[in-house]
Amino acid sequence: MASQFSTSVLWLTLALSVVCNAATVQQQPRAAVPAGYVAAPYYPTPHGGWAASWNQSYAKAAALVGQMTLAEKTNITGGSGIYMGKPPLNTHSMNLYVPCVGNTGSALRLGFPQLCLQDSALGVASTDNVTAFPAGITTGATWDKSLIYARGVALGKEFRGKGANVYLGPTVGPLGRKPLGGRGWEGFGHDPVLQAVGGALTIKGVQEQGVIATVKHLIGNEQEMYRMYNPLQPGYSSNIDDRTLHELYLWPFAAGVRAGVGAVMSAYNAVNGSACSQNSYLLNGLLKDELGFQGFVMSDWLSHMSGVGSALAGLDMDMPGDQQIPLLGTSYWKYELTRAVLNGSVPVDRLDDMVTRVVAAWYQMGQDAGFGPPNFSANTHDKDGLLYPAALISPSGQVNWYVNVQADHYTVARQVAQDAVTMLKNNGSLLPLQTGTSGGGGLKLSVFGTDAQVNPDGPNACGNRACNVGTLGMGWGSGVADYPYLDDPITAIRKRVTNVTYYNTDSFPNVPAVGVDDVAVVFITSDSGENSFTVEGNHGDRDASKLAAWHGGDDLVKAVAGKYSNVVVVVHTVGPLILESWIDLPSVRAVLFAHLPGQEAGESLANVLFGDVSPSGHLPYSITKSATDLPDSVATIRTPVGLDLLGQVQDTYTEGLYIDYRYLNKMGTKARFAFGHGLSYTNFTFTNASIKSVTQLTATPPPRGQKGATPAYSTSIPPASEAYQPSGFSTVWRYLYSWLSKSDADSAYAVGAAGTSKYPYPTGYTNTQQSSGMVAGGGEGGNPALWDTAYEISVQVTNTGTKYSGKAVAQAYVQFPAGIAYDTPVVQLRDFEKTDTLAPGGTQTLTLTLTRKDVSVWDTTVQNWVVPGVGERFTIWVGEASDTLTVGCYTDSLACQAGLQPPV
Ligand SMILES: *[C@@H]1O[C@H](CO)[C@@H](O)[C@H](O)[C@H]1NC(C)=O
Ligand SMILES: *[C@@H]1O[C@H](CO)[C@@H](O)[C@H](O)[C@H]1NC(C)=O
Ligand SMILES: *[C@@H]1O[C@H](CO)[C@@H](O)[C@H](O)[C@H]1NC(C)=O
Ligand SMILES: *[C@@H]1O[C@H](CO)[C@@H](O)[C@H](O)[C@H]1NC(C)=O
Ligand SMILES: *[C@@H]1O[C@H](CO)[C@@H](O)[C@H](O)[C@H]1NC(C)=O
Ligand SMILES: *[C@@H]1O[C@H](CO)[C@@H](O)[C@H](O)[C@H]1NC(C)=O
Ligand SMILES: *[C@@H]1O[C@H](CO)[C@@H](O)[C@H](O)[C@H]1NC(C)=O
Ligand SMILES: CC(=O)N[C@H]1CO[C@H](CO)[C@@H](O)[C@@H]1O
């Protein structure tokens, strides 16, 4: 997603774009995609509407679309242009103000409004009176399904309250393949199941509020550098083999489609050399056929680069509407799509399917009734402002109503931040800190690091949070929201301890003599974000800082540890860091990863530090001892090589399934802290495990069912008059309209009617709907049988401590049978559950579920999910982390054993 710029930047962008446009270079891949990776043609786009859960919405949508003119249809599938909000006042009576990061056109004659599409995945972006929730990575670190869902509900309420139709989240791609990748923190962790659960429950929570969720970015957007196509250089190509795509990167998208997600956003980059916004195999084949996606696909902002080609390849909505060089009033769609339908190049049924998908999603969320118009502007915080900021001359009017949508959502935000705090070390039980006499008089605390206190210029001082000053609560870029406030750690600590000395510096200062019982808390950070901004030399990805703490944080820890013998390190970070230079120092007694807590950074941490609650977060990624513990393809950011500086960067997923813990386990490399690791103030046991076979498995799932009916669309080209711009209509310069002049419409129609001038269709193109579809499809998310419960595992979790209450997480990992014909990672996460708060001695039975898909591999030959070795011994391991799995349940004997040697 693109970001909001100040007006001056906006004009600079315009000036630059005029200059750049002079060189209209066609992007060509200049470095070859490695042999074996192909972007196969897949045509046509399967019509939506055949899934039973959408059929009512499709029936209504088809009825509405059936009344639309050509220009109304192409209005809805494209944005009005970046920074283009309110439509011209003279066109209609419904005077909507649509000031979001993306605004579609409308068909007001039929009551279909402009849709407001708004960032971000962690809160309503660029406006006030909202909650700045913890980031995705923090949410994933809770390993708590009910909290993930509760955050989704609260997010949905806030988007709805501001009048945003479409929530541009959740992010499940990047998956976190590259620890240095800039946007991994927007998602839930470096594992497909953690991402799938995080994404699906967020979608459910958001969409139950009547807001369309957007699962993004499809697919392989694992680094920020060179992600975008521009007139001089194509975006990088993520070259991903079929099995890896299915078993890792597509997995969370399948779960999102299964959850009924209304929208998908395509990624900036290419896959196998073909840009995601026009990759027919990806959009038509995998997403709409195999995964049975019924909603609409939008382009990431300014990633759209063709007109006819993307329509045929399965793109349904062009965002924000402009060509790659924005603000010129030109579009690949809108009026051009109108032309392409009239001249016969884009089949009418493809356009009808596009627009019906959009309108069906609107009905599916119930937005046809009682959904108010937006009451905020993403462009300004002032009450009054320009109605079309991108126009040369724009009228002004009220643009912000300051509707407060926060309700009590700080409680769920704080709970997520608190339950995500992950304790990695606690030697000699330094934590929780004992405040001694009442009021904290007995504890003498020294706090170090600028991260403990909010940025003195305010938490929103840097636009798009593109700086790392003060408490780090979120990364930077479009995936942010404005803080209504930032409860910082130092404030929360001072509320509990009287004798606090705060050294607001990242360099070790002179300190007075230190007593043996004195405690030091050191705050360090690591930040990253979107490529549109460079922060302290990092181009979105952590290409400059690498995996070291920012601002010399590692040296600060070492210096403090040289003076104090009781040091607690608190880390606010987007992802893993290398901790080796200090983790084993005897005086570094405790380490807490607080991730990116959002607005509730203070109390959530203090509750853990001072023992109101036990820490219960677990790492959503592995922390390695060295960056080179991961393969080179994963550990580095891809850059152009040699003389081919302008060529397409090839990022080939040579490691296949082996990322994060999957790779470390394969190589037998011990992580410093394994995926899933997290300590508590108390201890838990896992006992009385049992396993139940629920569905009798066969090697492949039962054959998919037939598709339901889809709306019947005409294929005859509509009259040119449906595209005529109304006479006397006064346009706003650079606003994107779907009409053509009469002469343009007539001449395009003449081309289409003659049928002689053929569009150079891609190889493999056809417009005949396929009745069968891919073998692995059949429902939303794929063959419904894939989601049958195969096994249920129960385990009794008991708090065996005597002093502290706490919550435990049970993680279930599958180990495939030995000797099967497929190479599989030693263990792979498949489900997890968290207990309620268990008092000392308290116990709770948790149930973990494995579906047929969870015990399958993707077979590239049969193009289906295959259970390798039906009847053989799969081991379902259960434990508190990926490296402490001592309870194993066997699928052949249906017995479970405790006290086993962990598989890794
Ligand atoms: C990429 O290429 C591989 C190898 O040919 C193929 O299996 C896979 O399906 C391709 N992916 C896409 C999205 O085209
Ligand atoms: C919708 O699907 C349900 C369940 O398959 C079916 O009974 C119903 O007839 C369908 N309705 C339409 C309008 O297709
Ligand atoms: C397209 O949408 C814009 C913005 O709402 C509106 O002004 C215009 O009238 C619409 N065009 C058509 C053909 O309805
Ligand atoms: C936003 O506020 C405006 C003005 O008070 C109101 O008309 C509109 O219905 C509100 N929108 C929503 C979604 O509540
Ligand atoms: C139809 O119009 C589209 C959009 O301008 C253009 O790309 C395409 O080449 C045209 N087709 C023909 C056959 O002229
Ligand atoms: C803090 O502790 C130091 C050393 O024990 C002591 O000298 C000082 O008076 C204390 N300050 C407060 C405010 O209690
Ligand atoms: C938890 O168990 C470990 C290993 O048995 C033990 O060293 C530790 O003291 C226990 N911690 C608590 C809080 O009971
Ligand atoms: C509760 C809250 O944050 N209210 C704010 C809503 O927005 C207006 C305008 O920015 C502020 O003045 C309020 O403080």
Structure description:
The chain has 904 residues and is of the alpha/beta class. It has 3 domains: 5-28 and 46-405 and 710-754, TIM Barrel, CATH 3.20.20; 409-621, Rossmann fold, CATH 3.40.50; 684-697 and 782-897, Immunoglobulins (Immunoglobulin-like, Sandwich), CATH 2.60.40.10. Strand 26 (875-879) and strand 27 form a beta hairpin. The longest helix has 18 residues, at 145-162. Mean pLDDT is 93; it is low at 1-28 and 87-96. The protein binds 2-acetamido-2-deoxy-beta-D-glucopyranose (NAG) (8 copies). The site of one 2-acetamido-2-deoxy-beta-D-glucopyranose (NAG) has 10 residues, from helix 11. Its EC number is 3.2.1.21. This is beta-glucosidase.
Provide key terms for this protein:
binds 2-acetamido-2-deoxy-beta-D-glucopyranose, polysaccharide degradation, Immunoglobulin-like, alpha/beta, 19 helices, 22% helix, 904 residues, 28 strands, single chain, 3 domains, 6-stranded mixed β-sheet, TIM Barrel, Rossmann fold, globular, beta-glucosidase activity
What does this entry show, briefly?
The chain has 904 residues and is α/β, with parallel strands linked by helices.
